[in-house]
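User: Hi! Is it possible to get a structure for several chains at once, not just one? Here's what I have:
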Amino acid sequence: MNTKGITLTRHILLEQRAHPSETGDLSTLLAQIGLATKMIARAVSRAGLVDVLGVTGAVNVHGEEVKRLDEYANQTFIHVFGHSGLVCTLVSEEMEKPRHLSENCSQGKYLLFFDPIDGSSNIDVNGTIGTIFSIHHRINGDPHGTEKEWLRPGSEQVAAGYVIYGPSTVFVYTAGNGVYGFTLDPSIGEFLLSHENIRIPARGKTYSINEGNYPAWQPPMRSLMDYLKEKDPETGRPYSLRYVGALVADFHRTLLQGGIFLYPVDTRNPQGKLRLLYEAAPLAFIAEQAGGRAGTGTERILDIRPTGLHQRVPLLIGSPEDVALAEAFCAGRKKRDRERRKQP
Ligand code: AHG
Ligand code: MN
Ligand code: MN
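Assistant: Yes, the chains can be modeled jointly so their relative placement is included. Here is the combined structure:
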C-alpha cells in the first residue's frame, strides 16, 4: 500500500473494516485522541515559552508532585472527551477516582484510561516525553459504573497506543490488527503513516533499566544484569545500556530496534513502579501485537486482573527472546556464566 499521505484518520477508517461491529465510534475515538495529543504536542513544543513548565504545587494520588504540563494534558483529555458522547468514564494517572462524563454514566460505549504525560521528570530539561492510552468497551449497564467495569484485564482492550513527543511527534496504536506509527507533519497538522505494520526483532542488543536501583533489586535481577554485561560474542554479549527515563521513549526504541525494557520490583517499589491500567497493559498489547512479549517476570501482563485503579506491577517488555531470558532468570532456571561454571 502506498503509505505516503495516509492520514491517521484515513488509516483508522480503513482499519475499521476489520471491526465490522465497531459502528465507527472507535474510529472517532482514536481520531479524537489524535486531536488531543496534537494539542499537547503544541504545548510541549513551546513549553519554555508558554506557562507549562514547573510544578502546580499539587501532589497526585501517587504522592508525586504534579507538573503544569501533566495538568494541562489531563485537562485537554477531559475537554476533548467531555461532551463527545463516546466515552462514559475517564481513568487518568492524574485523577484519584474515575471521572464519569455523563449523568449516570448513561452515554459512551468506551472507557478511556490514560497517562497524560509519561516521563514528567524530563519536561523541564527538554527530554522526550509521551502520552499513553488504553481503550476498553463498557461492559455492563450499571448506571453509575462499577469497579468491575474498569478493573479489566489487558487482554480485553479494544485498542491501545502512545504518542511520543521527541524530535518528531509519533502516534503509535493497535486495534488488535497489527501496530502502526504516524508522524505528525506540523505544516499541515496531520499525523501521516510512517511505520507500516511494526514488528519487533526476535532479539536485540540493548537493555533498558535504571541501574541506580541495582542494590535494591532481588538477586535474580542482579544476576540477569551481570549476565547481560558479561563478554561473550557467541551470545551477542555484552548488551548496551540505553535509558531515557521516560517509559514511552525507552519502549519505542525497544519496539523498533529490539532488546528489553525492565522496571522490576525493588526495595522501594515492592510492587514495581509502573501502573498496570494506563502504562503496562497498553504497551503490553502493542508489544504482543508486534510479536513481542510483556510480563512481570512470573506472569503475562495482559492476563492480570487488576485489583486497584492505580495498581503498580513489575514490567519486563520487549523482544520475545530477551524477555523469555529475563523470565528464566526470575524463575531461577538460568544463571550467569560464572555461577554456572562454579556449579559441580
Ligand atoms: P510518569 O512521568 O507518568 O509518572 O512516569 C514515569 C515513569 C516512566 O515514564 C519511567 O520509565 C519511570 O517512571 C522512570 O522511573 P525512574 O526515574 O525511577 O527510573
Ligand atoms: Mn507514566
Ligand atoms: Mn504521567
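The mean pLDDT is 91. The first helix runs from residue 8 to 16.

User: Great, thank you!
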